[in-house]
């Protein structure tokens, strides 16, 4: 038996947000380390919180083939308890996340990949024992599409600004009920015809991929069960949610108004000179997006 729910990253596509009951993605103020955006925790559940948005920009065209003929699956497990509803991060407990490797999945390259496809894929992996040994309640399985494949969600497409989304599937196996958390991302790049597939925020596609899954991981950690809140009209399922119905990574992107360099950047790893591509998340302290800081706010 399988039931499913999904909570996707929002994306402001070129034509603007698309939702059953649209919520405004146009921020009244700017972002970054300024006390401007009036957003709080645990507010009214959105009608549908699903898309991570992006507005068209002109950037240099870079094309790099993806490594997988079908999809690359990776797993990240959190060491903290109760990560599924975001309560540990809200209460200040330290959360660590361990990467458990990746593998290339068999099969041909899909022309397009939608929500039912990812539900079917992760359900089959679970049924066939592919997810055995993982703490399912505290793990997220990430799926990266190969270069050129189009990611879809309802009427939205990666050709129109969709970068990825996260969700979950309820399954029952051997009399045991489990929830499988996942995220799926497009290989964001400029296609040979010049069209943008996904969200191109960096100079190389692999950096765009890292930025996308950084976004997804943080939203999984802070608002994994948003769709349960929508379906049951019970805000107890919500983790981090703004008054505008945006998740912790969506809010900075919508506030950037298409200037993605405000919220996507390469930052130094702690204690090292190596840089990694990330997306800045919303900060309660500055009431806007904030990048790495020398020490936690008091």
What do you see in this structure?
- This protein has 298 residues and is an alpha+beta fold.
- 17% of the residues lie in helices and 26% in strands.
Summarize the structure.
This protein is of the alpha+beta class. The chain contains five helices and 15 strands.
Per DSSP E runs of 2 or more residues, the count of β-strands stands at 15
What Rg is obtained from the alpha carbons, in whole angstroms?
Answer: 18 Å
SSE pattern:
EEHEEHEEEEEEEHHHEEEE
Number of domains: 1
Low-confidence runs: 1-50, 53-69, 80-91
Question: Which overall shape is indicated by the principal axes computed on the Cα atoms?
Answer: globular
Strands across the major sheet, in which order?
Answer: 1-8-9-5-2-3
Q: Could you give a short account of the major beta sheet?
A: 6 strands, mixed
What level of helicity do the residues show?
A: 10-25%
Q: Span from first to last CA?
A: 47 Å
What descriptors fit this protein?
298 residues, alpha+beta, 3-stranded mixed beta sheet, 15 strands, 17% helix, 26% strand
Secondary structure elements and their pairing?
Elements (H helix, E strand, L loop, with lengths): L1 E6 L63 E8 L8 H4 L6 E9 L6 E2 L1 H13 L11 E6 L5 E4 L2 E2 L6 E10 L2 E10 L3 E2 L5 E2 L7 H19 L2 H7 L17 H7 L7 E5 L6 E5 L1 E3 L4 E3 L8
Parallel strand pairs: 4-6, 5-9
Antiparallel strand pairs: 1-8, 2-3, 2-5, 6-7, 8-9, 10-11, 12-13, 14-15
């Amino acid at each position: 038996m399988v039931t499913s729910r999904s909570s996707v990253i929002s994306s402001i596509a070129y034509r603007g947000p698309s939702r059953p009951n649209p919520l405004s993605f146009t921020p009244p103020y700017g972002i970054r380390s300024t006390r401007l955006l009036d957003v709080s925790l645990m507010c009214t559940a959105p009608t549908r919180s699903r898309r991570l948005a992006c507005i068209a920009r002109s950037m240099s065209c870079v094309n790099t083939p993806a490594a997988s003929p079908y999809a690359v699956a990776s797993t990240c497990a959190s060491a903290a308890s109760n990560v599924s509803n975001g309560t540990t991060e809200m209460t200040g407990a330290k959360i660590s996340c361990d990467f458990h490797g990746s593998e290339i999945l068999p099969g041909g390259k899909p022309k397009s990949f939608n929500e039912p496809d990812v539900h079917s894929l992760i359900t089959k992996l679970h049924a066939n024992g592919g997810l055995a040994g993982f703490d399912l309640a505290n793990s997220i399985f990430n799926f990266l599409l190969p270069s050129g494949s189009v990611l879809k969600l309802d009427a939205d497409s990666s050709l129109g600004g969709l970068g990825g989304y996260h969700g979950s599937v309820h399954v029952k196996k051997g009399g045991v009920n489990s929830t499988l958390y996942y995220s799926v991302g497009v290989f964001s790049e400029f296609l040979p015809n010049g069209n943008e597939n996904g969200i191109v925020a960096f100079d190389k596609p692999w950096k765009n991929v890292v930025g996308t899954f950084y976004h997804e991981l943080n939203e999984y950690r802070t608002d994994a069960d948003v769709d349960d809140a929508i379906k049951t009209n019970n805000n107890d399922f919500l983790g981090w949610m703004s008054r505008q119905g945006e998740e912790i990574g969506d809010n900075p992107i919508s506030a950037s108004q298409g200037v993605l360099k405000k919220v996507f950047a390469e930052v130094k790893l702690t204690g090292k000179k190596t840089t990694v591509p990330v997306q800045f998340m919303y900060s309660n302290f500055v009431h806007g997006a904030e990048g790495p800081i020398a020490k936690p706010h008091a």
